Inverse folding.
């Protein structure tokens, strides 16, 4: 398999999250300590599985967003550390559950937990992490924060079921796909951003701004992931390139290429996606069709659109280092296709 794509025309430059990392470094140290503490259990398999994924090199972007969002409104307690840890545990739990549902073999360059310990253990440890997340939310004592994160947990589960129901369905519309990724990915980004101003007792307007920022950042993030599956690299993607295709996932590049294709091309998509004929040769052909019909470029274009909405959501807020860092996150997420 030798397909190499230039996924982006006119990359913004060396976008990075180093400012976000610097601003949240001290608090993230406390988050990491809390992660290790709360992932512990006398049941030996629980910390083994939890640490397998927790230590596998994720950027921990979501908890950093929570910390920065609390800092930018002057929060000075320790509740943001517990909420950031809750957010990371919710994310980790969904990854454990996702890998079971998707029957994934690799995650961030390592074997998935389900490949080592089995599906049952992966699901149950994911449930344990969710339980620990909710215990920390309760410890913080903010009903609003608890409401936001618990609602997000329900929405994420709904998104998983929506995706399962739409599996291998090439008649999925663009709107239906957006509904899935809004629930599966964007809802947690939105909640992670909003709980910061909530515990800092910021105004409803400020809360709404961070909620919108997180939602649109999450949509952009997922659309870039959709594009990367057809031309990124395994290290950046955290899984093998083409995994979505091999698993029969109907993501936006597939939806656009299928709808814009000829009758003969649509027959190819049906064979590849609906009958599990998605081998390397089929993947190469799929990428060729996506390129012909501008499906990957348009997926990236839609990601940029949501990125601009996220940027505009923050625009009215006072200039702070945290605000600037959160804007950098938008560019970083989109620049991954460069």
């Amino acid at each position: 398999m030798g397909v190499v794509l230039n996924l982006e025309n006119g990359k913004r430059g060396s976008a990075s999250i180093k400012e976000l990392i610097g601003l949240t470094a001290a608090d993230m140290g406390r988050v990491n300590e809390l992660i290790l503490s709360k992932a512990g259990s006398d049941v030996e398999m629980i910390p083994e599985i939890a640490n397998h994924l927790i230590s596998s090199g994720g950027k921990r972007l979501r908890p950093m967003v929570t910390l920065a969002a609390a800092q930018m409104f002057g929060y000075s307690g320790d509740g943001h550390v517990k909420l950031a840890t809750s957010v990371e545990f919710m994310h980790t739990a969904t990854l454990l559950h996702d890998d079971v549902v998707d029957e994934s073999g690799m995650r961030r360059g390592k074997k998935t937990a389900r490949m080592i310990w089995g599906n049952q253990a992966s699901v149950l440890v994911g449930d344990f992490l969710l339980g620990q997340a909710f215990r920390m939310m309760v410890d913080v004592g903010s009903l609003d924060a608890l409401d936001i994160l618990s609602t997000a947990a329900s929405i994420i589960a709904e998104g998983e079921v929506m995706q399962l129901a739409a599996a291998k369905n090439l008649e999925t519309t663009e709107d239906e796909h957006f509904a899935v990724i809004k629930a599966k990915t964007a809802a947690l980004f939105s909640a992670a951003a909003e709980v910061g101003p909530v515990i800092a007792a910021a105004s409803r307007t400020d809360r709404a701004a961070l909620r919108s920022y997180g939602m649109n950042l999450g949509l952009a993030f997922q659309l870039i992931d959709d594009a990367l599956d057809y031309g990124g690299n395994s290290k950046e993607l955290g899984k093998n390139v083409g995994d979505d295709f091999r698993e029969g996932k109907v993501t936006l590049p597939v939806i656009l290429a299928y709808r814009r294709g000829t009758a003969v091309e649509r027959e190819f998509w049906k064979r590849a996606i609906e009958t599990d004929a998605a081998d390397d040769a089929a993947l190469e052909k799929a990428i060729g069709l996506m390129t012909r019909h501008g499906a990957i470029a348009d997926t990236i274009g839609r990601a940029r659109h949501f990125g601009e909405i996220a940027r505009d959501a923050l625009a009215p807020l006072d200039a702070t280092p945290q605000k600037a860092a959160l804007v950098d996150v938008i560019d970083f997420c989109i620049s991954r296709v460069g």
Remarks:
- Confidence is low (pLDDT under 50) at residues 1-13.
- The longest helix spans residues 174-199.
